[in-house]
Write a structure and sequence with these properties.
binds nicotinamide-adenine-dinucleotide; NAD binding; D-malate dehydrogenase (decarboxylating) (NAD+) activity; D-malate dehydrogenase (decarboxylating); binds manganese (II) ion; Isopropylmalate Dehydrogenase; TTC_DH; alpha/beta; 40% helix; magnesium ion binding; binds 3-isopropylmalic acid
């Protein structure tokens, strides 16, 4: 992408506090590497927009965002203003589906200087990817409520696993595993209890693994897989999972590295037919919003992933190295936020990382 055009969408809560730090880091990389990246800011996909307009986004959001090479996104959700399923299905989930961002790529890495809640782990010991299916599976709007307000009331919601949808996320995950030194892929399943969709998932993993003879493949049911994330996180390299399982694993993984606040993600359309979206794994954190104590690293690292995706890996690496350098200095020498044991504000940490770039 030459002179990439970026749509910046802060959303709600701490999304509005961490996005400026993400942009600050991107601007620093932009200058250093002469990328010519341009940013436009949008206020939709937020509960504030909903309060003004009665909907989360303007009707032409798709055409508006199609003009951009990527979307740099904060977080959405203010459950005290609007039920989460309304705000999220009216914004983020529309992006993921409308722009066919079927890969949700979520690195899990223990970073220097971040205290690990698991005993005896050092940077390098935990370093894997969760590859989450991002457009179908357990997240569906197929179903409904019958006989409301009667004693026969019930709700049904279907899970949808299409052959194309399953195969393309598996293909991406196997390709990624094959490109890494360990060449190891783990599939998250639950085919002992969820008796139709998960056996199908296993069947497609098995079929795909035949095309990747050099990739060591294994599978765990999601319950014991969650346990192994805590007990043996060094066992993993690429973990591929359905939409819901991937969602859970991609909070659990970063929690095992000390804080979910540093975790980045890319909602990617690998074919490049539509813009991809880069955002932290965490949400809008209404419990700390307004105090400027949110850790901006998840947002900043998401910016590094965006630069990688846009074809500027050197610039992406420069941002990531700056994050590592500032973290490694520790709270006595670097302005770290409270979740990292420091007392600094969101923008102090953002400025330190931008300076290190
Ligand atoms: P959350 O990730 O917002 O917060 C969970 C906990 O982690 C909170 O205690 C919060 O203070 C802390 N935390 C999160 N990010 C942090 C950061 N950068 N620095 C320091 N601490 C941080 O999850 P939640 O509380 O379940 O959800 C809050 C809202 O965000 C809900 O509306 C939810 O639907 C939404 N949400 C949105 C996204 C998204 O936009 N991608 C992701 C997750 C949750
Ligand atoms: C995430 C979030 C979203 C998801 C929510 C907010 C709909 O938790 O990006 O991980 O479940 O995908
Ligand atoms: Mn999540």
């Amino acid at each position: 992408f030459k002179n990439p055009k970026i749509a910046v969408i802060p959303g709600d809560g701490i999304g509005k506090e961490v996005i400026p730090e993400g942009v600050r880091a991107l601007e620093a990389a932009n200058r250093k590497f002469g990328i010519g990246m341009q940013f436009d800011h949008f206020d939709f996909a937020s509960c504030d927009y909903y309060l003004k307009h009665g909907k989360m986004m303007p009707d032409d959001w798709f055409d508006t965002l199609m003009k951009y090479d990527a979307i740099f996104f904060g977080a959405v959700g203010m459950p005290n203003i609007l039920p989460d399923h309304v705000s999220l299905w009216g914004s983020l989930i529309q992006f993921r589906r409308g722009f066919d961002q079927y890969v949700n790529l979520r690195p899990v890495r223990l970073l220097p200087g971040v205290p690990c809640p698991l005993a005896n782990r050092k940077p390098g010991d935990i370093d894997f990817f969760v590859v989450r299916e991002n457009t179908e599976g357990e997240y569906s709007s197929v179903g409904g409520k019958m006989f409301p307000d009667t004693d026969r009331e019930f709700v049904i919601q279907e899970s949808i696993f299409t052959r194309q949808g399953v195969d393309r996320i598996l293909q991406y995950a196997f390709d990624l595993a094959q490109s890494r030194p360990k060449k190891h892929l783990t599939s998250a399943t639950k085919s002992n209890g969820i008796a139709i969709t998960m056996p199908y998932w296993d069947e497609r993993v098995e079929a795909m693994s035949k095309k990747f003879g050099d990739v060591r493949t294994d599978k765990y049911h999601i319950d014991i897989l969650a346990a192994h994330f805590v007990m043996n996180p060094d066992r993993f390299d690429v973990v591929v999972a359905s939409n819901l399982f991937g969602d859970i694993l991609s909070d659990l993984g970063p929690a095992c590295t000390g804080t979910i606040a540093v975790a980045p993600s890319g909602s990617i359309n690998p074919e490049g037919k539509f813009p991809s979206l880069f955002e932290p794994v965490h949400g809008s954190a209404p419990d700390i919003y307004g105090k400027m104590i949110a850790n901006p690293i998840g947002q900043i690292w998401s910016g590094a992933m965006m630069l990688d995706h846009l074809g500027y890996p050197e610039a992406g690496n420069a941002i990531f190295s700056a994050i590592e350098k500032v973290l490694a200095a520790g709270p006595a020498h670097a302005p770290l936020t409270p979740d990292l044991g420091g007392t600094a504000k969101t923008d102090d940490l953002g400025k330190a990382i931008a300076a290190a770039i």
